[in-house]
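This protein record is not my work; I was only asked to verify it. The record follows directly below this note.
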Amino acid sequence: MSKSSTALLFFSAASLAFLSGCSSPGEQVSAALPQQNAGSAPNTQTVGVVKVTRHPVAEKLTVSSELVPFQEIDVYAKESGFVKQLLVDYGSHVRAGQLMAVLEIPELEAQLQQDQAAIIAQNDEVTRETHEVERVKAQHNVLHLEYARIASVAKAQPGLVAQQEVDDAQGKDLAAESQIEATQGALQAARSQLVVAKAKLSRDQALFAYARITAPFDGVVTQRYANLGALMQAGTSSSTQAMPLVRLSEEDLYRLVIPVPETYVKYIKVGDPIEVRVPSLGHSFAGKVTRFSVDVSSSTRTMHTEVDVENRTGELVPGLYAEAVLSIVERPDALALPLQALDRSGSVVTVFIVNPQGRLEQRTVTLGAQSANYAEALAGLREGENIVVSDRSGLKAGEVVATHAIEPMSYDASPDNSQSK
């Protein structure tokens, strides 16, 4: 080593010794600490937390379907005929019993005249038979008196009247009595035929009454199939291609047919209130569960359930898309945590909490009812604990973190589960 190199090393060592002597003890400790420890406080991760509190949690199910009238039928003619009057059209509102159309049925009109003529003739027959009974009774009365007198004389003075004469008088009396019974039978037959004729008239009048087609219930005409002069075939015959007159839909009451998944079947009860949302109208209607099939379809694993919806304002029309919101479970005082705090791995649900020492703990929780924003904690949490709701991708249990309180979401009981028909 040269003399110049030796001198340079000596100068450097002296300079280091001088600087060390001028430094304070605290500055020496700081210089000796590793870099990561010296910067740990400024680099502590801050997480957003909310406190576990109690408030109502309602789990609801939304099922989408389409509104249909409570009753909707095609109105057919009972008897074949030509449309003589058509009093309704598309959109016509009718009341039960209101006349919608009149048919012209010439054959039935002629039959009614024939029935009335038959009744008149039969009435005359009854009158004739009645007079015949009275005539035969009068004749029998004369013959009976004659026989009574001859029999009395023959008994009082034997031998005065020949027995042959007595027998002849008795025979005439008995024959007249038999004639009475015969004429009474004919009278009864005439009366029966009169009843038959009147019954036939009543039947034909009932059939002719079907020429006036009336509304079976209150509703609105949604389809019209016939025009004036059209021939309407009788809707009772399967051998003809009968065409309906109109389609009538009930407008005061609608039904929403919803398929309830088998998981929720146990919660469905008749009379349960239902919120029916109609997105196209922008508001909701009150409904209730009115009936259900009490069995689960093997093909869809759902239960046919019907909700009745009153149409007081007349806004509802057939075919509107609607959503039925069913209350499944309601917990008025649930230990609730936000859904955004949950980490799911299969059937296991975990959360991160910050303990009083500022360290993270990972907890497994058991959930109950769930709404759109909150879930009920049945086990794994205590009221008042701080639960992490911010991003948790880089967090580890045991890590020290700083907390930042986040304003909890307002309680929202909107549906968390949804199904479509």
Remarks:
- The chain is about 30% helix and 35% strand.
- Confidence is low (pLDDT under 50) at residues 1-41.
